Amino acid sequence: MDERQLLKHFNAEAEELVETLLADVDLLGRAIENGRPSPALVNGIFRTVHTLKGLAGMANVPSVHHAAHAFEDVLDDVRMGRIRLDRSLVNGLGRVADELGALVRAVASGASADRAGDRVVEELATVRGTSVPELEDAADDLVAIDPRVLATLTEYEEHRLRENIRARRPLYELRVAFDLVSFDQGFRSLNERLAAESEIIGTLPGVSADDPMKIAFRILFASDATTEDLAGLVVEPGGELELLSRYPAAEAVPIDTAMPVASSSIRVDMGVFDELARLADDLAIQVAGLGATCASMARHLSLSPREQFELRQQQRSIERAFGQWQERLVDARLVPLGPTLVRARRLVDKLAGQLGRSVEFDSQGEDVRLDKTIVDRLAEPLAHLLGNAVDHGIEPASERTAAGKAPAGSIRVAAESSGNRVALTVADDGRGIDSEAVRRAAEARGVVTTAAGSRRPLDMIFSPGVSTAAGVSGISGRGVGLDAVAAVVAELGGEIRVETETGRGTIFTLELPTTLVVLSAFLVEAGGWTYAVDVNQLVELGLVEPESRDGRRRVRWRDAELAYHELVDLVRAGGDPWRREGRVPCLIARNGSTQAVIAVDRFLGERDVIVKSLGRYAPSLRGVGGAIDLEDDRIALLIDLPSLIGEEALAAR
Amino acid sequence: MKKVLVVEDSAAVRAMIVSIVQTVPGIECVDAEDGLAALKALPADQFDAILTDINMPGLTGLELISFVRCHPNYKQIPIIIISTEKTEADRERGLSLGASDYITKPFVPGDLQRVIKHHLGI
Description:
- The structure holds two protein chains of two kinds.
- Chain A has helices at residues 3-33, 39-58, 62-79, 87-108, 114-130, 147-151, 155-166, 183-197, 227-235, 270-300, 305-332, 338-355, 372-393, 397-402, 435-444, 482-491, 567-570, 641-651; strands at residues 171-179, 198-207, 214-223, 240-243, 334-336, 359-364, 369-371, 409-418, 421-428, 495-501, 505-513, 517-526, 529-534, 538-544, 547-549, 552-557, 560-566, 584-591, 594-599, 602-612, 624-629, 635-639.
- Chain A is of the alpha+beta class.
- Chain A has five domains: 3-130, HPT domain (Four Helix Bundle (Hemerythrin (Met), subunit A)), CATH 1.20.120.160; 147-249, Alpha-Beta Plaits, CATH 3.30.70; 270-333; 350-513, Histidine kinase-like ATPase, C-terminal domain (Heat Shock Protein 90), CATH 3.30.565.10; 517-651, SH3 Domains (SH3 type barrels), CATH 2.30.30.
- In chain A, α3 runs antiparallel to α4 and α13 packs antiparallel against α16 (482-491).
- Chain A is flat.
- Chain B is of the alpha/beta class.
- Helix content of chain B is 41%, strand content 23%.
- Chain B has five helices and five strands; from the N terminus they run βαβαβαβαβα.
- Chain B has a five-stranded parallel beta sheet, sandwiched between helices.
- In chain B, β3, α3 and β4 form a beta-alpha-beta unit.
- The termini of chain B are close together.
């Protein structure tokens, strides 16, 4: 392997390691806010830097080797419990990690790395200077561990063993044997499940005594899970579990040490949340029907006023409890924006490096929480906006200096929440967008119509066609694709705005809901409005001919006579239905045993939609569960069919 | 042809070690990304030496050494620890578990080649 190849290997892996490092340090910051960083995370960070050091040594990159070595020393002290892991230390580690990242990038771009290397060492000195030494306790001998297992523990693993004993955390040995040929799958899956709730300290592989075709593992771990839960893990691979610790009961101490080991969270697949949301929707229909059932019971069973009161009270408390439960479910999907902002920083650094721009990145709002789906969907639009800011917004240093600006450009991403909305801004102090050029480009593409005529020329940048126009931001070639950004934001139920000032910079503001509910909806039109219905609430669609009998409109449907309603009457939205001639498109819906036929003007088809809350206006609209953004700035109202026909059916009695 | 198993979790370092070792005529390498992958590789080939890192996720080098030394089929295979000045204590543990030798990262190619040739008897 020659020098050039070595360096190529180095650059590829070092960049990956730095990304892992930054993400983990960020995670650590969040964990320390919650008071419970996991030792595995700290050790992972140590290992990453350790690997980077080894790599730099082998590839002969002394600047990185030196810096990573110094960083590794501090991290070793942290993981071995010699320095206390607190908030100020974590902040310091974050700064060191950032500088180390800058150093690796400098090396990759072939720039001089001396200054970047010095900064890592300077930051480390600060961290060292302000760190608090941790007192090491003498290890206890309250646990009977096989010396053969002990002998294979690394220094770090032995430290973790002592820490767990100090915290009086139950220690177990799990003995399990796997088939020699296919052991890795079974072992890895067991390991994963075990690591989710417990801390694995060591794993000793050996030859199985009963069967030479098997490989036996002895896994030493600490866990707060119940013995029953742990035993459950072993059932499938068929192993045995032994409790090794024999702590005196009275001596139990709270696990509130410098580096607590218990985890208060579990990982849940997003599919589980979606399933829970679906179940909640089903339940919502039942709960909504409860009111009508109670009212009808009160009437038909001639309940006393007191009994009626109690029934109503009980019904309301069920509704209240269910409402709270739904809110909690929605909240549980919220995740902080922090990791997104970390990725934003890395992206800006990377792009700036590639394009030879000098950019300072700043972010705010790491703790702002949004629905996981929104955060995931935001990644691409955000990357788009940042790409534009670096590529088209920020000018080369020479141009900036000539314009009397600081040579380094600034890009700032900030999130701020107010109520159930979040405003995410992406601001740069670059050259700004030329509105006149946007207008010309829009005109050239025929985007300016009478409807758009009232809009500011700048807003046309979000129109398809204009966004791909060359020359809009002064740099030709790459399309900016802002229409795609606007489309995603609209789909999420948000809005996008842009403000710009020539020579001063551009600010994009994304107004987003914090929560969303995704639903399979059937869209219909009635009285000039578009309505959406949860497909799960639909029994059937049909074309029917209504007939009048006893002054009430009925319809025969599959051998039954059903009540016939106009949707516009049910929601009392006003507006006249089309003149009915011949067969009318209808939704057939059910509430309990009551079925009804609901006439609409037109079927528009099924699609997945995101439901926005109507907020405080919702209670005034009967049977309306939310709003859905459609294309062309139109909205559809989500209607709750069972509650509509339930009430209607009762009122008609 | 002598076969050497290289166990190291950094892909780049692994590639470097393999390329250094394979420069010696008559040696061929098989690589494993961690201790577990090494356990999987062992029965598939006849190895004449193992080069292993210590700190690896899943299964550490120490655990791998302990396994090899207690297994009737493998216990004779020379094991060389790839260590760093940071992991001196762990290297000592590895040697007391039965590792044959060690080399400290970063090393120059000649050193590694000399150590490996010595243990392969070439």
